[in-house]
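Table S5 (text form). Sequence records supplied for joint modeling of the two-component complex.
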Amino acid sequence: MGRGLYIPTKSTAENGSPALDYFTYSSSIADYLKSASLVISHAGSGSIFETLRLGKPLIVVVNEDLMDNHQSELAEELAERKHLYCARPQTLYKTISDMDPGSLVPYQPGDAKPVAELIYRYLGFPED
Amino acid sequence: MEKGDFCISTMASSNIAVLLAIGVITLLVIRIIYVINRRRKPLHSKSPRSLSTLIVLGSGGHTAEMLNLLYVLQTERFKPRYYIAAATDNMSLQKAHVFEDSLLGKLLAHAVQCEKLDFTFCTGRGVKVPNHEAPEEVGGAEFMQIYRSREVGQSYITSVGTTLVAIAHALWLMIKTRPQVILCNGPGTCIPLCVIAFLFKVLGIRWSSIFYVESIARVRKLSLSGLLLYKLHMADQLFVQWPQLKEKYPRAHYVGRLM
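The corresponding structure-token record, covering 387 residues in total, follows.
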């Protein structure tokens, strides 16, 4: 998958084994996220906040191979605030077996209005 | 004798040249200090009607954050709007298009409502959309692409040439749009645009206000773009989205998160 060599096998739910599907690209994964009860994702801010907004339990797996690894900053900060779990490829299994989704704190979405207010004030527009 | 005169006159003219150079540099330094300090005061004594605005989009997360800001801004205060994204990035401009279309939808719905109400009740946000007006005029948005100075993995030797092309292109776009407001939030493409905007201010070509919102992904350290704008005093207001960063960079503003 991606640039890797491993290709999963698609399967339907049979004999108690879970259904398995995959795709390499989707312009919008919102529907997949909505139907999920657990999301395991890379550390991109788009994926993280899209999942948190839906209130789904989330495990972020940080790619340690990236050179300038500022991406882990966000995942670690949000994990510290108990909004998600942050794992490394080696610790993912342990994270899944130890996790308690009930202990996660729902993320309160941010608000851009205070930024807009400061911009208005700076430019001399009356405030809302 | 003649030779001596010549020497004296060349010495005199070189002295004048040196004095002129010192004069020009001093003026420039004074002007730069003025431009930098001007940032802290409100720009207009009266409230402006609307300001032409350049919006620099980056890929993925950057664009999502910028759109969250645009959704709460009163767009009639920021027009015309010029969107710029890297030439290799098609998704961002598409998303900006969707945003502009949604504004248009709101305007048209408002106009239809106004017509039903006979226009007299509709002073709302001062928006009037006569039916005959073309959609482009209503929206007041333009979409542009900019060359990147260096693609990921490009060699350093060829990147000298592409950087020059990118700077020339940025200059051309800035001359064409001459924005009064610049909104950017992270991609490296905003740096040449902001530097040119700053030079325009120093040279008195165009006064603009630069607003930079650091990406929410930056928790402990500013990005290179953010750090440059902060250290060089180029951003009029620089926002960070985490309190830790505000502690580290006291001149930044922290008023919550965009996402």
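Note: Residues 113-123 of chain A form the longest helix (11 residues).
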